[in-house]
Automatic annotation (TrEMBL), chains A, B:
PROSITE patterns to which the protein is assigned, alphabetical: CSA_PPIASE_2
The keyword Lipid biosynthesis belongs to this UniProt entry's keyword annotation: no
Domain of life: Bacteria
GO molecular function: peptidyl-prolyl cis-trans isomerase activity
Gene3D superfamilies: Cyclophilin-like
Protein name: Peptidylprolyl isomerase
Ranges for domain PPIase cyclophilin-type: 63-251
Organism: Sphingomonas parva
SUPFAM superfamilies, per database record: Cyclophilin-like (SSF50891)
InterPro entries the UniProt entry points to: Cyclophilin-like_dom_sf (IPR029000), Cyclophilin-type_PPIase_dom (IPR002130)
Signal peptide: none
Length: 307, 307
């Protein structure tokens, strides 16, 4: 991309500016012969993939049938992820339900985690794991501007925002990411109440709430629900809820039956080609590649693990 | 916001960069005492609102009950909007249906517009109205970087990308925006087949397809549908389709019965305060205002017209 004189030249809020004012943050430089992202993924070598540790895979079975698979991110929210594992191992969510679906925002589930006895191993007031140290994290910079963070990219195949000045990195609220519901106080979310993003990325939640993972299969079972009619999309009656049959860690499921997935490594050359392809969509349909992409429009490729 | 030395310093795709590399596109400068966007809208004076011309309001009634209201944008895609009006006036979509719902992407409807006789007044091969002249358009710059366009903002209360260098502006593919389905050739979309965005903004479609408006009421009737199981989210069987009862322009509905809405003027002082509030969410829940926002997270406020 090429930068234009005055890339800093965004006007203060409210100041009137001639639309012809000759400033811009950057200028996209579309790549006309970019690779087809689907083909890049299809042809990615075995070593470009990493298996999802069964300890990091939450298996949610719905009473109506179907399942939602959630990959956990212990390196970003270790205490909350440990809580999630403890909740799962204690059967905390068996018979829990989705009780809130708000259009263009979130689907939320649980069975209450405040003022009730919690299972052994659950920390009631975890630290607010809204960010982690940038140090020790190998980030692949996306290479395009972001509307929220100084820098964005991918680390360990997760979408991240980061700030080299403050030395911090954090997961971003992209579609299908899973976060910890909390009350007003930052330390009131245990991980017992979770939500998945089902609309345009609400990035304003970044650095305000702990993200613990992402839905890698079955997001449609959450996003296609009727929207709740109460404030914030809560369902009016229990009969509208979407009940779970049981929720387990893949590691607690016999090996023969457990789902096994892998994700494309964000430090692989294939991933770089994938990003370039996502930022420069071509083929017969697209007439003008964008020459840019936002971090939430680079969904990390996931596949069933080859036998 | 403050810019850091080397705001241009995004790495070329694929180049490995130390995460601690001290560059960034910009640095958000959160406003701690920002206005509450909901309160700003509530208190906006009457002159901050513009009525939606009934000629620019498409009323879609579903057979199952409920309606979807779509505001049209004639100043951005005049020929396609004229086509849409002609289709509506000729009852083209009565008994049409939603036949495609793809998760995190689009809901699409129509009844075919290729190789069939079209109603009087419909231009079969409209020009590709993917952008318009920036000249003559009063844009309010958003004031934050965008991952796709040199500049973004709002014009006539529509979200736009624009490029002062090329002198062009275009509508952006934000949630609930409505576009024209087309075949591979740019001039194959008449406006008879339309889609609404129901997921994270697919901004890569900007400048590749004509946007003709946005859903201002009833988006949940499209977004909450079961996802189609065929490729691209097409429904497998006609029984899965969501049939329309009829589709009319509000101007063709008797005044007493016609819906009447208004939108917040993007050139109003209230809108500037609203943007600042959206970019710096505060109150009791948010612990750290973002200090930035993307153009698709600034939904233009719409309300029923006060009697």
């Amino acid at each position: 991309m090429a930068l234009i004189a005055g890339c800093a030249g965004a006007p203060p809020q409210g100041e009137e500016v001639e639309p012809s004012a000759r400033y811009a943050f950057w200028r996209p430089a579309p790549v006309v012969e970019a690779p087809d992202p689907a083909k890049v993924v299809e042809e990615a070598p075995a070593e470009a993939w990493r298996a999802i540790d069964p300890q990091n895979l939450l298996v949610v079975e719905l009473k109506e049938g179907g399942r939602v698979l959630i990959e956990l991110a212990p390196d970003f929210a270790p205490v909350h992820v440990a809580n999630v594992r403890a909740f799962a191992r204690n059967g905390w969510w068996n018979n829990a339900a989705v009780y809130r679906v708000q259009d263009n925002y979130v689907a939320q589930w649980g069975n209450g985690d405040a003022e009730v006895p919690l299972p052994a191993g659950v920390v009631r007031r975890p630290p607010h794991e809204y960010h982690r140290a940038l140090e020790g994290l190998a980030v692949r910079p996306l290479g395009y501007p972001d509307s929220y963070a100084p820098m964005v990219g991918h680390a360990q195949s997760w979408p991240v925002g980061y700030d080299p000045e403050e030395g911090r990195a954090w997961l971003t609220h992209c579609y299908a990411m899973v976060g910890v519901g909390r009350d007003l106080a930052p330390d009131t979310g245990t991980g017992g109440e979770l939500y998945a993003i089902i609309g345009h990325a609400p990035r304003h939640l970044d650095l305000n709430i702990a993200l613990i993972g992402r839905v890698i299969e079955g997001i449609g079972l959450l996003s296609a629900r009727p929207r709740g009619t109460e404030a914030l999309g809560f369902y009016k009656e229990a009969k509208d809820h979407v009940p779970f049959a049981r929720v387990r860690l893949a590691s607690d499921i016999p090996e023969g039956e457990r789902p096994s997935y892998e994700v494309l490594r964000s430090d692989s050359e294939a991933f770089s080609r994938y990003v370039t392809g996502r930022a420069n969509r071509g083929g017969d349909f697209f007439k003008r590649p964008a020459g840019g992409v936002d971090v939430c429009n680079v969904p990390v490729p996931v596949r069933k693990r080859p036998a």
